[in-house]
Amino acid sequence: MDSLKEDLKKQIIEQLNLEDLTVADIADDALLFNDQGLGLDSIDALELIVLLEKYHGIQLTNPEEGKEAFRSIDTMAEYIRKRKAA
Amino acid sequence: MSVITAYCRLTEDVCAVNGEVKLRRNVALEDSWFKQIYRHFDFSYPKFYKMDKLSQAGFLASELLRKINPGIMGYGDDEIALLFANRSSSAETDQRFKDSYTSNSAPSPSTFVYTLPNIVIGEIAIRNKWYGENMFAVLPKFAPDFYKNYAQILTSSDSKAVLCGWLEVTAGNTDVFLFTVEEKEGGTEFSEENLFRLLETAATH
């Protein structure tokens, strides 16, 4: 398993207090802000921004970037890799 | 006549609907008790995982009532009132929120949104698109007269049914009792005596 994706899942569970969820419950391509995915909302988006800075040292200031980056675990991992490579 | 048309009881280790035990807690499982119920009944509502324990309890019990009494969905979206109460308000989540900024230095927005007891009413209302009257009271103990009196007020105006609930969920104590009250012939009379009896016996068979 991609360790960045696994770390992201653990960090989301921790940051959003999703204590009943396990890493195995979150699919890499599940839509984070969709009722059929993780069902996150705007409050959780704030938490994800904090998470990026806290665990990965990345500041996300452009809302348009956030929309794409926070689609799924896959896109979050891709966004982190891109930002770190830049 | 006002009658109790369905009721659900959750305790620390029993989940019962209309007096029949549907599930017992399996202590061998790592899953929390509420997650065991969620999975056992194949509920699919990812927002469940974001809720605090109070809202999880209200969500589960209301879903179970919908299963056993689907007729409740036949009312107009503003014809079902929600009437809830408990003893400890949202104290457990309040403490967790306090811990989030005393031990981790940053207050947690996702915990903060649950630092009011009536959020559970919002969760149930959103889930079912019920936009009727609602109230959450903090009382010293389960008080049948509270439900009886307020339900009477609600049904004397525009409400045709009332989803009532006692939701006391604290560490080591799950004391949940939800019931629907409707205007129908037959069924269990909506009386203080019957509420006490159902509360005491609902999870014992």
Task: Give an overview of the whole structure.
The complex is a heterodimer of chains A (86) and B (205). By secondary structure, chain A is mainly α. Chain A has one domain (3-85): ACP-like (Non-ribosomal Peptide Synthetase Peptidyl Carrier Protein, Chain A, Orthogonal Bundle), CATH 1.10.1200.10. Chain A is 56% helix and 0% strand. Chain A has four helices and no strands. Chain A has helices at 3-15, 42-56, 63-69, 73-85. Chain A is globular, with a radius of gyration of 12 Å. The termini of chain A are far apart. Helix content of chain B is 35%, strand content 26%. Chain B has a single domain (2-201), classed as 3-Layer(aba) Sandwich (Peroxisomal Thiolase, Chain A, domain 1), CATH 3.40.47.10. The mean pLDDT of chain B is 94. The radius of gyration of chain B is 17 Å and the shape is globular. In chain B, strands 1, 2, 3, 4, 5, 6, 7 and 8 form an eight-stranded mixed β-sheet that branches. Chain B is built from seven helices and eight strands. By secondary structure, chain B is an alpha+beta fold. The A-B interface holds A 15-21, 25, 35-40, 43-44, 46-47, 50 and B 31-32, 34-35, 45-50, 96, 106, 108-111, 113.
Which helices and strands appear, and what pairs or packs with what?
The complex is a heterodimer of chains A (86) and B (205).
Chain A: H1 3-15, H2 42-56, H3 63-69, H4 73-85
Chain B: E1 2-10, E2 14-17, E3 20-24, H1 33-40, H2 53-68, E4 80-86, H3 91-102, H4 109-112, H5 119-128, E5 134-138, H6 144-155, E6 161-170, E7 173-183, E8 188-189, H7 192-201
Parallel strand pairs in B: 4-5, 4-6
Antiparallel strand pairs in B: 1-2, 1-7, 1-8, 2-3, 6-7
Helix pairs in contact in B: 2-5, 6-7
